[in-house]
Amino acid sequence: LVSRENHPERSTVRVGGVPIGPDTVTLIAGPCAVETPQQTLEAAEMAKAAGATLLRGGAFKPRTSPYAFQGLGEEGLRILADVREKTGLPIVTEVVDAHDVELVASYADMLQIGTRNTQNFALLQAVGAAGKPVMLKRGMSGTIEEWLMSAEYIAQRGNLDIVLCERGIRTFETATRNTLDVSAVPVAQRLSHLPVIIDPSHSGGRRDLVLPLTRAAIAVGADGVIIDVHPHPEQALCDGPQALVNGDLRELARVMRQFPPLL
Length: 263
Ligand code: PEP
Hints:
The chain is built from nine helices and ten strands. It is an alpha/beta fold. The structure holds phosphoenolpyruvate.
């Protein structure tokens, strides 16, 4: 279903009316985690002012350490919905448990599947049946073939509104959190008609790498990027070192506007 063999035209997925696909490079930005109403609104206003058309933000945030901030849950979803009301930006947010899909889908415009859940097949089937577009991260130790098979699980339930997101893979390199696999973009686009975007924030894990990795993403033909921003990264409860501040985000958006979409 997601293969290009029977569907040679590349697809465009619309999220609350915003296109992600071959004719544009979509900027998705927002906080890694929803922390407070004010922090989320400030991050969303930064994102919108820079030209982002979709707002990201995690409400369910199970982390490597069970002692780290775990997200606000439904309260976080309510904050996101309120910020959407104020800014007009449709929301992309992660769902981590099949039992929460209905709840998250009742607030979100796009459901995100995180790297640790790329092969959680029950969750994939549940989001496939939820009637909302899905952003499917690549498993950090998953092959492109496995990633596309995960997309197939979603598509099988009748949902072809899927965007693939390369977010770095595990390699021997420790200088970055994960290694951004830029070749995954053209490879996945050749095999599948689905749009492919890049997450330079979670792959590098470092603010100074977000702009160069975004340039790389655009150069290889990514259909969009998803970027962490925070009004006060030094106070962030989650992934502050990779969050862009206002000026960085404006510069990134300026660089993105210089590149015409690669067709
Ligand atoms: C995220 O985007 O909030 C996130 C946790 O990303 P990943 O699943 O790629 O680590």
